[in-house]
Amino acid sequence: MTSEEARHLLFQSHMATKSCMSSQVSDDEKRKRENIRSLTMCGHVGFENLPDQLVNRSIQQGFCFNILCVGETGIGKSTLIDTLFNTNFEDHESSHFYPHVRLKAQTYELQESNVRLKLTVVNTVGFGDQINKKESYQPIVDYIDAQFEAYLQEELKIKRSLFNYHDSRIHVCLYLISPTGHSLKTLDLLTMKSLDSKGQLPFAVVGSMDEVKIGNKMVKARQYPWGIVQVENENHCDFVKLREMLICTNMEDLREQTHSRHYELYRRYKLEEMGFTDVGPESKPLSLQETYEAKRHEFYGELHRKEEEMKQMFVQRVKEKEAILKEAERELQAKFDHLTRVHQEERMKLEEKRRLLEEEIISFSKKKATSEIYQNQTFMAMGSNLKKDKDRKNSNFM
Fold it and tell me: Which of 101, 243, 277, 351: CA 20 to 30 A from 59?
């Protein structure tokens, strides 16, 4: 970032301060419209110490700050964070062979003078290493929304513990672009477009924890074959401007913007999605209880409607099943009647055949008996003839 852009950034901060003053003026005008009287006190009371009380409470509670670092593997995310906070977070090097992008969160306790800071650094592991980079940014967006959702669920609890709740909502997203000089990659454009509501101005930054002797002093720098780049030299890079903007000037503003703007936008969207509104059908203000009762009534109405639909569907299906069963019963009865008729016809045919067979048997029996009588008579006649011949022969011999 050039010096002109830095002045522009400071001008924006100054304008933000003026806007706060103008909002105070508008609050004064609002009090006048609401007929609120301004009084002059006759002596010291003590509520002028409220800012000191706020500072003491903040120091006692400590602060939290969450940074999301997005960039390809090996681009220098860990080195930049180390340089920003002047410490070594000892983050291990990542591999280039992860199949998907995953987000790794590390929380650290830092202290400067008597101010404690709980710093969470969320690193994108495997970002830009996949062959198909189409959905590489989606886990980042999902992670940001997941932290908003976790805070919202804590807010909606009956017994809340927001005082000691570890707020994991992302306060700032640092997107690191590779300094190839060949314009932005498609992945850079897609990701920054998805994170458009969370980013700021571009900076040309160099980070390093190595010290190089320049003249009579040691400075943080990177040494290249063509020269030395000093990290904290504003003529060499924008690191100092980034650190001042991020930590010294706007850290609390970023925390406040995360809560009052980005989280509120997410919260409003989720509550509207659940059906909660601030005004009713006649543009009258609604309390949460009224909205809940209306949603409850609507839910039970919808439940009753679905129950009636299911009952009607059940009755209809029972009727259809009964009709199918009756049709099957009719078909079975028709088959039974047909088989009964066929059986009766076959039985009658068998009875007829049996009758004919019995008549043939009786006729055969009669013929057999007649034949036997005839044979007996023949044998008897032959016997008598033989006897006569014998008697005749005997008489002749005599």
Answer: 243
Length of the chain as a residue count: 398
Two structure tokens written together for 121: 């650094």
Cβ atoms of 71 and 127 within 8 Å: the answer is: yes
The DSSP-derived string for 356-389 is HHHHHHHHHHHHHHHHHHHHHHHHHHHHHHHHHH
Residues sharing a CB contact under 8 Å with residue 15, sequence separation 6 or more, in sequence order: none
* pLDDT 10s digits, 285-316: 667 677 777 778 888 888 889 999 999 999 99
What are the distances in angstroms from CA 274 to CA 145, 263, 296, 298?
16, 16, 12, 12
Contacts with 310 (C-beta within 8 Å, 6 or more apart), sequence order: none
Backbone angles phi, psi at 177, to 5 degrees: -105, 135
d(CA 326, CA 17): 84
Please give the Cα distance from 293 to 271 (Å, whole number).
15
Output the six-digit token pair for 386: 């033989």
pTM assigned to the model: 0.59
Do residues 168 and 66 make contact, with C-beta atoms less than 8 angstroms apart? Answer: yes
